[in-house]
């Protein structure tokens, strides 16, 4: 979330740079390598699309859809690619650690208040949507700033847009879909997209915890600039050359849809290492801590205190606690092992299941909550199944969906008591074994007995490498596809 007012105090020291693969004008500094804070980019694109919404739209219809936000992010990344800017990694938050519980609750409360205020302002509801108003997404909508119309201020963000973008970057935006989506917006040589069919799939990753730490690690290792709106990135160790580009400062100019590679994209860059030298302090961290403790002080006083108190702060427990969030460094092996096809919230349930999802001598509330979450998800699918059964629809996506959920078990099976679920697992059966079984049987592929390890964890805690195994000549077994979750997890 960042420290309040940190960006406002430090942005005057930022330097204007061009986002370009090579220097375009004499005297201009160019940024050729970036790592992107995924959630920050998604929220930024949402705000820019909202600022471009047609003011004739009802407030509810002005909210950019998940599809529009995903398209906007794709267009943003495509324009960077056309300008020769290399994106090394796009990082998304995974399961947040327990230490982030307070921050999570603050975010939830902020969202709740926003929804409450939105409801109070629209007590009478909304008019019927106007289907005649169409919106398009092009680089000017996501790379040029504009003030959000007053009537759209306070409009809640779409809660599913981050998960949508993460999924689409990995599985939707291939060359064919990209060209189809932007064919009427701007024109370019198809070869400029690159050789990979999915240009961003391999670099879009979900990391354990928040994305900040991995963005910082990549910046420190490669010297890449971090594209983000989160001022916390200034407090991580970015090395001598790592820097932060604030998304709100990114601005497109000289745009011509027939020549997108001739456009200019400027941004404002802050390098914590050089900024510290300029302010005459050891580290920006001292300044940030003083600001967090004394938000009423001005810039000069904060700089003075940062210089004079640094030796004292190095020994202060409160300051050491303050640094904990910024000293955390994700393990590259842990990132490789982290499930990459789960939504962030489902990722949290997954890790919660690994930690607490068993029936031992005692049942904690973590078990109860997890069971309730599973029941809620299954019942939601049941609601969808019944509602689809009431309508006559011939569209292929709906028919496919009806087919997928047709095998849901009856309600008495869905809502089994815990004593029945407990009997299904012997006392020596761990959650990890259950997950091994789940991934093995749901994959509809052939594996040897010696390869029945889960795809994320080995007994030694290292990533598994099945390729080229000397045990590949073992007798293999074919497992039939299971029709639902209960068949998958139940013993033979």
TrEMBL record:
Region of interest (Disordered), ranges: 449-478
Domain Asteroid: 157-355
InterPro entries for this protein: Asteroid, Asteroid_dom, PIN-like_dom_sf
Gene3D superfamilies found in the cross-reference section: 5'-nuclease (3.40.50.1010)
Superkingdom of the organism of origin: Eukaryota
Similarity comment: Belongs to the asteroid family.
Protein's name according to its UniProt entry: Asteroid domain-containing protein
């Amino acid at each position: 979330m960042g420290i309040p007012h940190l960006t406002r105090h430090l942005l005057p020291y930022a330097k204007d740079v061009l986002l370009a693969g090579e220097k375009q004008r004499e005297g201009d500094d160019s940024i050729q390598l970036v790592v992107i804070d995924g959630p920050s980019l998604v929220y930024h694109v949402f705000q820019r699309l909202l600022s471009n919404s047609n003011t004739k739209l009802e407030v509810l219809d002005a909210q950019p859809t998940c599809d529009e936000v995903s398209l906007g992010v794709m267009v943003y990344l495509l324009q960077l690619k056309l300008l020769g800017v290399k994106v090394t990694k796009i990082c998304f938050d995974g399961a947040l650690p327990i230490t982030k519980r307070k921050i999570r609750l603050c975010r939830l409360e902020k969202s709740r208040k926003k929804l409450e205020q939105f409801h109070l302002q629209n007590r009478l509801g909304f008019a019927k949507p106007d289907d005649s108003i169409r919106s398009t997404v092009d680089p000017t909508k996501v790379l040029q700033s504009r003030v959000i119309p007053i009537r759209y201020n306070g409009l809640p963000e779409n809660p599913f847009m981050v998960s949508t973008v993460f999924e689409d970057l990995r599985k939707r935006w291939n060359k064919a879909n990209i060209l189809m989506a932007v064919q009427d917006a701007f024109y370019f040589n198809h070869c400029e997209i690159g050789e990979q069919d999915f240009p961003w799939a391999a670099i879009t990753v979900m990391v354990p915890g928040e994305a900040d730490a991995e963005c910082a690690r990549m910046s420190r290792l490669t010297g890449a600039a971090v594209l983000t709106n989160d001022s916390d990135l200034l407090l991580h160790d970015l090395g001598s050359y790592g820097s932060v580009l604030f998304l709100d400062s990114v601005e497109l100019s000289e745009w011509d849809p027939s020549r997108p590679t001739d456009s200019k994209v400027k941004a404002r860059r802050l390098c914590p290492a050089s900024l510290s030298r300029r302010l005459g302090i050891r580290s920006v961290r001292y300044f940030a801590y003083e600001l967090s403790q004394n938000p009423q002080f001005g810039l000069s006083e904060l700089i003075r205190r940062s210089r004079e108190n640094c030796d004292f702060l190095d020994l202060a427990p409160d300051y050491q606690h303050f640094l904990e969030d910024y000293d955390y460094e994700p393990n590259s092996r842990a990132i490789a092992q982290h499930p990459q096809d789960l939504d962030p919230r489902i990722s949290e349930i997954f890790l919660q299941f690994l930690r607490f999802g068993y029936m031992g001598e005692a049942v904690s509330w973590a078990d109860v909550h997890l069971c309730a979450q599973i029941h809620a998800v299954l019942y939601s699918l049941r609601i969808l199944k019944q509602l689809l059964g009431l309508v006559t629809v011939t569209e292929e996506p709906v028919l496919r969906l009806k087919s997928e959920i047709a095998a849901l078990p009856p309600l008495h099976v869905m809502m089994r008591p815990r004593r029945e679920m407990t009997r299904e697992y012997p006392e020596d059966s761990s959650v990890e074994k259950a997950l091994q079984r789940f991934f093995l049987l749901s994959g509809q592929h052939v594996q040897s007995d010696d390869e029945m390890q889960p795809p994320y964890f080995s007994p030694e805690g290292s990533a598994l490498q099945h390729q080229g195994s000397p045990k590949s000549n073992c007798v293999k077994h074919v497992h039939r596809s299971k029709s639902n979750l209960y068949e998958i997890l139940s013993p033979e």
